[in-house]
Write a structure and sequence with these properties.
The chain is mainly alpha-helical. The radius of gyration is 41 Å and the shape is rod-shaped. Helix content is 96%, strand content 0%.
Length: 96
């Protein structure tokens, strides 16, 4: 049989080991909390950039649609001017 002193030593050793493990886990937990916090900051930054890029994309789409419209309207105006000139020529020929 083991003596009470030996049993007490074992309990003390196991308690010391548990305390070491607890401290190690606490340190790991603190590191994970810091990493989590930095990842949240990075996520917020990326969300902000994402919102900015979505806004730029929306503005670009609007600008392209307006740009296309102005090109079409210029093309239509040019065709109308060509038709008017052709009509004027025909009227001038009819008057002769």
């Amino acid at each position: 049989m083991t003596s009470v002193a030996d049993q007490l030593d074992k309990v003390i050793q196991k308690t010391a080991r548990i305390i070491e493990l607890c401290n190690a886990l606490q340190e790991e937990n603190d590191l994970l909390k810091l990493e989590n916090q930095s990842l949240k900051v990075a996520l917020d930054t990326f969300k902000g950039k994402h919102s900015e890029l979505e806004e730029k994309l929306r503005v670009t789409k609007i600008a392209k649609s307006i740009e296309g419209t102005s090109e079409k309207s210029l093309d239509i105006k040019q065709k109308i001017n060509d038709f008017v000139r052709e009509i004027d020529k025909n009227i001038a020929l009819l008057k002769k």
